[in-house]
Write a structure and sequence with these properties.
The complex is a heterodimer of chains A (about 240) and B (about 300). With about 240 residues, chain A is an alpha/beta fold. Chain A has helices at about 40-50, 70-75, 95-100, 110-120, 125, 140-150, 170-185, 195-200, 220-225, 225-235, 235-240; strands at about 1-10, 15-25, 30-35, 55-60, 65, 80, 155-160, 185-190, 205-210, 210-220. Chain A has one domain: P-loop containing nucleotide triphosphate hydrolases (Rossmann fold). The N and C termini of chain A lie far apart (about 40 Å). Chain B is mainly α and about 300 residues long. Chain B has a two-stranded antiparallel ribbon. The mean pLDDT of chain B is about 90. The chains are: A alpha/beta (about 240), B mainly alpha (about 300). Chains A and B meet through helix 2 and helix 3 of A and helix 6 and helix 7 of B.
């Protein structure tokens, strides 16, 4: 469904992506893990059109999409739940959802029924529908950001660090939601620093390090991979070094 | 004039203060629309007011249109000037900082003023009032018919804008672009078009103010600067970006000016706006209705 082929992107003068290739198949959840500064956000921004790749090909449903602006990419069916949530904090919850469906604004009935579905999924959002989005708690804001992305009726959802800056219990709740989305058969690209949680629920995973993919495999394999355990899970570091 | 008592004088000053005040409010609303979407303070806003007035003069006197048609023609043509300003100037400099864009708007204002001088010359022009007739006398104070029109135009603009920003998808999309431009692009809102719309809308609103005020206070090529400055004072006093604040602050400014002219000296009239602007900047820089937290997050 999504194919990224040897993409190079510069972030200012920094060569942030040095030939990254990955793919996401329909109804699959793929996790992309990596430390701070590995280039995860650059990759997300490149896929979603906020940054232009200098080299390489990005294909979505067989069409090349690199260099297209984000306004157009959401119309092609990729929705981003951005890092740090990025909700419209001075607007009401309801208006946030409505803006999520901006590309469907001429289809009022669809927008309304989709909004109803979001409220059913997250009853707290219905309760707060007339509140300014900036007054919500971090977890609620994340739910809103996810709902806003769903309102565009995407083929592929890109979740950028959904657990960032949230309390552990809330993180658990967010991962439960992500799993639920996966069970509904949605295609998801999950970008996470929380490697364990991400790999536990993902079908496949990629590990990004300083702009290059260093490992890939199915979730469980990666979870048990020595390099991943050492670098991202902090588990058994001594055993590895002692061996 | 025996009947011209203290009370009647007070009422008279209040009415004329409110009349000019709503004009300042309209100018301030123009600033706010552009500021809300782009964080740019468009110093050519006063020039839109001047152009509105002078285009209306052109349409009534040169083309001989009736005043009502001239009003809409002037609003549309000035809206096109705002459109062109964004398309030809602001968009080309889109990668610059907000500060350089603000300086660019000053350049545009000088350009517009100069062009107006070449076209219309330096003389002030008058426009017939929207409806003829003697002023109404209320409790000894005279209310010009044009003042009623000014209130009506302002009320209409405020109602339409409120409706536009609260109800329509495009209005909300403009607010979303202002709130978080990159998130707005990611949900598919064409932010550049929203900026274009904001300039067009501001120019049209400025022009509506200009056409309405011309029958009362005449219009000439360099009138825009002062109206723009006072509108800016109202915008800051009300809290940049706050429409309701702009409305209230505009009227406060108009009243202060009118009372100053009536009870102190009309010579100090123009200083009132500046003094209020300075006081606001010293003591309440986020404005009467602005939020302090929001003000901290903004660049200007």
């Amino acid at each position: 469904m999504l194919k990224v082929k040897s993409v190079h992107t510069y972030y200012g003068s920094i060569h942030a992506l040095k030939g990254v290739s990955l793919h996401v198949r329909p109804a699959e959840m793929v996790a992309l893990i990596g430390a701070n500064g590995a280039g995860k956000s650059t990759l997300v921004n490149t896929i979603c059109g906020l940054m232009k790749p200098n080299k390489g090909i990005i294909e979505f449903q067989g069409e090349s999409i690199q260099g297209i602006g984000p306004e157009e990419i959401v119309r092609r069916g990729i929705a981003l739940v951005p890092e740090g949530r990025q909700i419209f904090s001075t607007m009401t919850v309801e208006a946030n959802l409505e803006m999520g469906a901006f590309i469907h604004r001429r289809n009022g009935r669809q927008v309304e029924s989709d909004m109803e579905r979001m409220y059913e999924r997250f009853p707290i959002l219905r309760e707060r529908s007339q509140q300014l989005a900036g007054t919500l708690s971090g977890g609620e804001q994340q739910m809103l950001a996810i709902s806003r992305a769903l309102m565009s009726r995407p083929q592929l959802i890109v979740l950028d660090e959904p657990s960032m800056g949230l309390a552990p219990l809330v993180v658990k709740e967010i991962f439960r939601i992500v799993q639920e989305l996966r069970r509904e058969g949605r295609t998801i690209l999950l970008i996470e620093q929380n490697a364990r949680a991400a790999l536990q629920i993902a079908d496949r995973g990629y590990v990004l390090e300083t702009g290059k993919l260093v490992l890939q495999g199915d979730g469980a394999t990666l979870l048990n991979h020595r390099e991943v355990q050492r670098a991202y899970l902090g588990k058994g570091a001594r055993q590895i070094w002692d061996a | 004039m025996d009947s011209f008592t203290f009370g009647a004088a007070l009422l008279q000053y209040t009415i004329s203060g409110l009349t000019i005040g709503v004009i300042y409010a309209l100018v301030a609303i123009g600033y706010n629309i552009i500021y809300n979407v782009t964080e740019i303070i468009n110093f050519a806003q006063g020039e839109f007011v001047m152009l509105g007035g002078l285009f209306a003069v052109f349409f009534t006197q040169t083309i001989q249109l009736p005043v009502s048609a001239a009003f809409f023609a002037a609003v549309i043509v000035t809206g096109c000037v705002g459109f062109a300003m964004e398309r030809l100037v602001i968009r080309r400099a889109r990668s610059s900082t907000v500060l350089s864009l603000i300086i660019i708007t000053i350049a545009v204002s000088i350009l517009l003023k100069g062009s107006a001088m070449f076209w219309w010359g330096k003389n002030p022009y008058s426009l017939p009032a929207f409806s003829s007739g003697r002023p109404f006398i209320i409790a000894g104070a005279a209310v010009q018919r044009q003042a009623i029109w000014i209130f009506a135009v302002s009320a209409l603009v405020v109602i339409c804008l409120t409706f536009f920003f609260r109800r329509s998808a495009y209005g909300k999309a403009m607010l979303a672009s202002a709130d978080n431009p990159s998130a707005a692009r990611m949900v598919g809102i064409p932010v550049r078009q929203m900026i274009l719309l904001s300039f067009t809308l501001s120019a049209a609103i400025g022009a509506a103010a200009g056409v309405s005020i011309t029958p009362i206070s005449l219009m000439e090529y360099d009138r825009g600067a002062l109206l723009g400055l006072k509108g800016f004072g109202a915008a800051v006093l009300g809290g940049l970006g706050q429409f309701f604040g702009a409305l209230v602050a505009g009227m406060v400014l108009g009243l202060a000016e009118s009372f100053c002219a009536g009870y102190l000296s009309s010579g100090y009239k123009d200083a009132v706006a500046l003094v209020l602007l300075l006081l606001a900047l010293f003591f309440k820089p986020e404005g009467l209705f602005g939020s302090r937290e929001a003000a901290k997050l903004k660049k200007f």
